[in-house]
Design brief:
- By secondary structure, this protein is α/β, with parallel strands linked by helices.
- Helices cover 30% and strands 18% of the residues.
- Strands 1-8-2-3-7-4-6-5-9-10 form a ten-stranded mixed sheet, with helices on both faces. Strands 11-14-12-13 form a four-stranded parallel sheet.
- A hairpin with a 7-residue loop joins strand 9 and strand 10.
- The chain is globular, with a radius of gyration of 20 Å.
- The two termini are 31 Å apart.
- The site of threonylcarbamoyladenylate has 29 residues, from strand 5, strand 6, strand 9 and strand 10.
Length: 325
């Protein structure tokens, strides 16, 4: 099992020393847990890809303390980037720009662009401060699996890695990955991944933002439809359709249902997980619920589709669609 350490000043110091030594550290951010290594150390970056089983061409997000540090990774750092950093950093917004000279190409999956974000989680910030440099970190899950929102999730995915340090600071408060916006082309802004910071909120700062181009060449592999998937076949459906399906569950199947309304019920051996009705609470619960559903070893996961489309719901729906693609 990995080394789960409560996120105390002592363990953060151990983690920072491990990063300096070229090792990897799993750490909490406000969105999900990340699997970090030094951005400037190609050997550490190679370890991240190896451990996750991540395709080499899927680029990583570099984590920094502030816009000044971001400017050393993205060049040119334009006024839109500065405005977005001032509006949303530290926080769940990732900015893609042209990679500065001197940043190893390994850290960007071979691309000439780099994704950068400044996390708000106090433990992530303490780690960055003590380490003193940028930390590249994808979500700390095995490639293709659901992102981890607790240290125990990280432990589950990397059970055989006894030397991996995991800083444990409880559940990640946001629960879904950061919004990713591509500003690498002048006069264009493209949303690559929706997140807790909405497209509308970004547009208020920098003007029109193009919708994601799923499956296109320019979008990252993370924007392909099925990426955040549980292992059990999962289906998304509206409330009425769900009730209808549940009235005739095939006898050889065991279902686990992520429900929103009280009238969605199922007797044993089936199970219902009641999901929160508030978007923020739903997002914070989603990945742990998907992992629970997976571990329940049902034959099928059914998810009640939320009706709401305001606030964070479109980003939640995006993850639900990926999980059920
Ligand atoms: O909330 C988050 O962003 C978490 C925490 C740990 O910060 N990290 C995360 O990383 O979700 P990851 O690797 O699981 O997702 C990064 C996403 C991927 O979809 C990747 O393709 C995209 O960002 N990305 C990274 N660099 C890119 C680049 N240069 N151009 C386009 N997309 C990029
Ligand atoms: Mg990921």
């Amino acid at each position: 099992m990995p080394r789960l350490l409560p996120a105390t000043p002592e363990s953060i110091a151990i983690a920072a020393a491990a990063l300096r030594d070229g090792q990897l550290v799993a750490f909490p951010t406000e969105t999900v847990y990340g699997l970090g290594g030094s951005t400037l150390d190609p050997a550490a970056i190679a370890r991240i890809y190896g451990l996750k089983g991540r395709p080499r061409d899927n680029p990583l997000i570099a984590h920094v303390l502030d816009a000044d540090a971001a400017r050393r990774l993205i060049q040119p750092w334009d006024s839109r980037m500065q405005q977005l950093a001032e509006a949303f950093w530290p926080g769940a917004l990732t900015i893609v720009g042209t990679k500065a000279e001197g940043v190893p190409i390994e850290a960007t999956g071979g691309r000439t662009t780099i994704a950068v974000r400044s996390p708000s989680h106090p433990i992530a910030r303490a780690l960055l401060e003590l380490f003193g440099g940028p930390v590249s970190a994808p979500s700390a899950n095995r490639s293709g699996h659901v992102s981890p929102t607790t240290a125990a999730h990280v432990e589950d995915d990397f059970a055989s890695h006894t030397d991996l340090i995991v800083l444990d600071a409880g559940a990640a408060p946001v629960g879904i990955e950061s919004t990713v916006i591509d500003l690498s082309v002048r006069d264009r802004a493209v949303l690559l991944r929706p997140g807790s910071i909405s497209r509308e909120a970004i547009e208020e700062v920098i003007g029109p933002v193009e919708a994601p181009h799923f499956e296109s060449q320019q979008a990252g592999p993370g924007t392909t439809r099925s990426h955040y998937a549980p292992r059990t076949p999962a289906e998304l459906m509206a409330h009425d359709a769900l009730l209808k399906r549940m009235s005739r569950i095939p006898t050889e199947e065991t279902w686990i249902v992520l429900a929103l309304r009280e009238d969605v019920q199922a007797a044993r051996p089936h199970r219902v997980i009641m999901m929160p009705n508030r978007a923020e609470a739903y997002a914070a619960r989603l990945y742990s619920a998907l992992r629970e559903a997976d571990n329940f070893r049902a034959t099928r996961i059914l998810i009640e589709e939320p009706d709401a489309r305001d606030g964070m719901w479109p980003s939640i729906l995006d993850r639900l669609q990926r999980a059920t693609a």
